[in-house]
Design brief:
Blueprint (H helix, E strand, L loop, with lengths): L1 H6 L4 E3 L6 H13 L7 E3 L4 H10 L5 E5 L2 H11 L11 E5 L4 E5 L5 H13 L9 E7 L3 H12 L20 H17 L1 E5 L13 E4 L16 E7 L2 H8 L4 E2 L1 E5 L3 H10 L4 E4 L16 E2 L2 E2 L39
Amino acid sequence: MVSAAIVSGCPVVYKPSGLSSAIGWNLVELFRQAGLPAGVFNFVPGRGSVMGDHLVEHPDVAVIAFTGSMEVGLRIQEKAAHVRPGQEQCKKVIAEMGGKNAIVIDDDADLDEAVGGVLSSAFAFQGQKCSACSRVIVLDEIYDRFVNRLKAAAECLSIGPSEDPAHFMGPVVDRAARDNVMKYIAIAESEGKVLVKRTDAPAGDCYVPLTIVEGIRPEHRIAQEEVFGPVLAVLRARDFDEALAMANSTRFALTGAVYSRSPLHLEQARREFRVGNLYLNRGSTGAMVERQSFGGFKMSGVGSKSGGPDYLLQFMDPRVVTENTMRRGFAPIEQDDDWVD
């Protein structure tokens, strides 16, 4: 978002998440070392609850680029719609607001690939990715085999400090995130049957149990609300049509994936699985720069996809200049004393 605005000619007021201010400062330093003039990239760290509304409402701000929760994104859009005293331009909002992403496991799927893809998509980064898989929808014919393998694999994942690459999963970002995830684990336990709940993480800090629950239906809260943590709901579908209907049953449309060896089902998913980024026979996370422009629709976001062909245009105002070249007569150029032929 920062680089897109800068290369489009816009000065930037940059407020990273309050949880990533140090990383934000490193980004600012990289631009400074690259020779960006002072005043173009302005670093203003702080709490969104303290300064977010002020930045959004400021009359000199013309474009707001945001990544975060749906609730905050909708608040930004609402506030941006109100014209403030001294404001000369309608504010544009580019917002990526999260998802409730599903992976569909067809009855002919390669389980070696599918189990690994689901685990990585659901639990890498502790599930703290907007593209993380939080629902896996499994066809009835293959359900027991897939779930048994998923359960066994999830119980083997190493959990511990993220500084050690031997660990697959670490703690969530802070205590507020931990409390929110624990709330949704309780909801998941009340709505379904626990398959896995890892309680062997290090004590203290911000670790939460890696949790998988089955017996979930599309109307359950754990199948509808974004958790942003390592909680995976397993849904059972009669056939591929029902699986796609379940996948499309939320108000989000960010990412999704399908594991299948059926060309007909893969083509059907292309047509009917309504997400911004659909992955066939791979996980739902990890869009590759310059190959897979990223972003969704419905309640997952507004604006053109990041890295897509229209992304930079959002930071510009188009102008058209038209000249009538059918002149009548001739107006000579006035010459000053220093003019030389």
